[in-house]
Amino acid sequence: MGAWQSYRLRLQRKRWRIRALRKGRELMPVSNRTDRIRASDLLVFCTQRNEGIRLPYFLDYYREMGVNHFFFVDNDSTDGSVDYLARQPDVSVWSSRGSYKRSRFGMDWINYLLRKYGHGHWALTVDPDEFFLFPFCDTRPLRALTDWLDASSIKSFSAMLLDMYPKGRIDAQPYQAGQNPLEIASWFDAGNYTIRRNNRFGNLWIQGGPRARMFFPDRPERAPALNKIPLVKWDRRYTYVSSTHMLLPRGLNLVYDEWGGEKASGLLLHTKFLDTFGRKAEEELERKQHYAGSTEYLAYHAGIKDNPDLWCKWSEKYINWRQLEILGLMSKGNWA
Q1: What is the C-alpha separation between 178 and 263, in angstroms, rounded?
Q2: For strand 246-248 and strand 187-189, is the pairing parallel, antiparallel, or unpaired?
Q3: Sheet order of strands, 159-163 included
Q4: What is the SS3 assignment for 162?
Q5: Which of 158-167, 169-178, 240-249, 305-314 has the lowest average pLDDT?
Q6: Is 2 among the domain residues?
Q7: Model confidence at 304, in pLDDT bands (50, 70, 90)?
Q8: Which tens digit of pLDDT belongs to each residue from 46-80?
């Protein structure tokens, strides 16, 4: 990278950090328990709106993994989820009635909280419908991974987003609060993915899966990005640029081996496609708070209107992380 481009990225990082400080004024504390956080605690950061039905299992999943404290930004929910989160002893909650779109889809708020509370901690930034997997997660806690990353001087850890879906109509089986969503959405596309390198930021750009196959069959380049870097040993100098797809400084995006080897990587099981999805898509279309004029949700709404079934004859049923490693969707690298 040339000196001029490097200088421009430093200016952009400064701009996003200043913007996050300004947008942080939109956050109103509902329940701030950050005085309980210890220096070694593992943290989760999350933005949510009307996801109350998902929160009980989400919290239990990450607690069992070893997360010590949760940070939530609630964007004007009306389903009682704020009150539920405020009652949790390991959760701190802020509320904002500001524009999700004008906060760069919530990332300005998250960057603010990461800067203020995440410095020096391993921070996992996920959505309420995302469930993090890493090598050996069936026998080792998250702290085993972060200890290994610390010992290896690795500051960031990637996880591809894997869309999960039911066999048959996505509205056929109602999801219940506290239920493991993988009991319903247990299928995924084992292939059908494209990977290219983003030369400006140095990250990989992954697209494909059922959303490209079903909702963007004639415009696969418009399909949502599946590359994410959700786990970072946070420093107040860092900033997310676009969701958790990429960060600055640029070196944090080098989560893959450029010389033909394999770096350890994880995966995010994405359980968006439950019976709640149709109502969510309609709500987001009305709000018009998503990227590119909610193009993605327009495609969702049209795609599920007549046949809400993402399953196909090439779909594969999820078993465990080792299955995903065999398929090349995640890797244990040299962590044994």
Answers
A1: 34
A2: unpaired
A3: 130-133, 266-270, 159-163
A4: strand
A5: 305-314
A6: no
A7: low
A8: 999 999 999 999 999 999 999 999 999 999 999 99
| Amino acid at site 76 | D
Asked whether residue 335 is assigned to any structural domain, the reply reads: no
- Tokens at 154, concatenated: 């690795």
Give dist(CA 27, CA 23) in Å, integer: 8
Exposed/middle/buried for 12, CB within 10 Å: 0-12, 13-18, 19+?
A: middle
Which parts of 99-152 are beta strand (E)?
122-125, 130-133
Residue pair 94/88 in contact by the 8 Å Cβ criterion: no
Q: What is the C-alpha R_g of the chain?
A: 19
Within 10 angstroms of residue 197's Cβ, the number of other Cβ atoms is 13
Residues 52 and 84: beta-carbon distance below 8 Å: yes
Q: How many domains does the chain have?
A: 1
pLDDT at 267: 98
User: How far apart are alpha carbons 113 and 281 in whole angstroms?
Assistant: 28
Task: Choose the weakest-confidence range: 134-138, 183-187, 286-290, 317-321.
Answer: 286-290
In a domain, 4, yes or no: no
- Six-digit token string for 215: 């909702």
Please check whether residue 5 is in contact with residue 100, taking contact to mean a CB–CB distance below 8 angstroms.
no
In a domain, 336, yes or no: no
Class of residue 110 by CB neighbours under 10 A (exposed 0-12, middle 13-18, buried 19+): buried
Range of the domain at 244: 10-251+263-327
Taking only the tens place, the pLDDT of each residue in 240-296 is 998 999 999 999 999 998 766 689 999 999 999 999 887 777 776 676 554 554 566
Q: How far is CA 164 from CA 182, 227, 308, 309, in A?
A: 8, 15, 14, 12
